[in-house]
Amino acid sequence: MNFKGKQVLITGGAGFLGSFLTEEMLRQGAQVTIYDRLSHGTTRIQHLLKDPALQLIKATLQDQDKLSEAVRAKDFVWHLAANADIPGGIKNTMMDISDGILATRNLLEAMRGAGVRRMAFASSGAVYGEKTSGFRSEKAGPTLPISLYGAAKLGCEGLISAYSHLFGLHAWIFRFGNVISARITHGVILDFINKLKNNPKELEVLGDGTQTKSYLLSEECVAGMLHVMEHSSIKEGEGFCDCFNIGAADETLVLDIAKMVIEEMKLKDCKIKIKGGERGWLGDQAKIALDISKVRSMGWAPRHSSGEAVRIAIRRMLDQPQELYAHGQ
C-alpha cells in the first residue's frame, strides 16, 4: 500500500508504537494527523512536531465531535490508542471498556459517517488467553482472555469485524507479541533496568522465572504490518477483515531476560531473586507464543529472533534519555 500523499489518522500516535509508525508514515510522504490525549506528553514525537506534514490533535476518543472532525477526508486510519496498563485495568474495571471497546465504537462511527473505509487495528496476543504450551495461530479458539485488556482487544476485534461486513470497511487486525525498543515506558525489561539502578546487587524476578513470551522490535512490527497490507487480496466494493499475528517465531524466558539485562549493565556479583508464583501479576499470560506461519506465507518474517530483539532493546533502553521512561504507564 502506497501512503505517499495520503491523508492518514493515527490514534495513539504520540505513544510508544505510535511514534515509530508516525515516523514511517512521514518518511513515506503521508500527511499525518495524530489523535492522542497525550497522557504522557509529546516526548516521543518531539523531534517530529516541526514537520509541516504532521498535525497533532489533543483529544480523547470519547469526544465524538472532535473525533468526527479529525476523521473527515482521511484515506486511512491507524487505531493504536488503548489502555496499556493491564494491572491498572483491574483496579478500574471500566478503563479497558472505555478506552478500548467504547472508544473503538466511536471511531468506527466517525469513519462510517465520513465515508472512510480503510483501517488497521493494533490488537494483541492477549486475546488468546491461557495456554501452557504451543504456538497460537489466528485460527486458535476459543479465545478466552484472562485480562480485561485482552477482553477489550477481543471486543474491539468483534466490532471491527461487524462494521466491515455491515458497512464495507477494509480492516487489518494485527495481534502483536511484546513490542519493544527505546521510548517504552513499561514492561519487564524496563522494570529490570530500574530495579538494578536502585539496587545493582540483587534483581527480583516476579513469578517463577519460567514465563515465556515473544519479543519483537518496534521497527519490525511496523514493517510487518505494512508488508501484510501490501500483500493482502481485497475486492473493491466488498468488506474485508482479517487477523494477523505479528511477532517473533520463537520465545524468550523471563529469567534469560534478567541475565541479559545484568550482562548489558555490566554488573558483577548480582544475585537473581525469584519471587515465585505462576505469573508476574494477575492477568499476566505466563506463556504466550505466536504462530506467524500466516504472515510467513505472505513473505514476511522478522530479521531478529526474540532473544536478539530483547538484547538490542536493552541496549537502546540503556542509551535512551531518562525522561522518555520516567513515567510508567
Outline:
It contains ten helices and 14 strands. The chain has 329 residues and is of the alpha/beta class.
Characterize the structure shown.
Helix 2 (64-71) crosses helix 4 (95-114), helix 4 (95-114) runs parallel beside helix 5 (148-167) and helix 8 crosses helix 10 (306-319). This protein has ten helices and 14 strands. It has helices at 16-27, 64-71, 86-91, 95-114, 148-167, 188-198, 218-230, 254-264, 293-296, 306-319, and strands spanning 7-11, 31-36, 54-58, 76-79, 118-124, 170-176, 178-180, 202-206, 212-213, 215-217, 240-246, 252-253, 271-276, 287-288. Strands 3-2-1-4-5-6-11 form a seven-stranded parallel sheet, sandwiched between helices. Strands 12-9-14 form a three-stranded mixed sheet. It is of the alpha/beta class and 329 residues long. It has two domains: 7-179 and 215-246, NAD(P)-binding Rossmann-like Domain (Rossmann fold); 181-213 and 250-325, UDP-galactose 4-epimerase, domain 1, CATH 3.90.25.10. The model is unreliable at 325-329 (pLDDT under 50).
What name is given to the CATH topology of the largest domain?
Answer: Rossmann fold
CATH architecture classification name of the largest domain? 3-Layer(aba) Sandwich
Task: State the CATH superfamily name of the largest domain.
Answer: NAD(P)-binding Rossmann-like Domain
| Mean residue pLDDT | 93
Specify the oligomeric state: single chain
Please tell me what the overall shape is: globular
CATH class descriptor name of the largest domain: Alpha Beta
C-alpha-based Rg, rounded = 19 Å
Strand arrangement across the biggest beta sheet:
3-2-1-4-5-6-11
Percentage of residues in DSSP E strands: 15-25%
Helical percentage: 25-40%
Main sheet record: 7 strands, parallel
Summed up, the helix count is: 10
Low-confidence stretches: 325-329
Broad structural category: alpha/beta
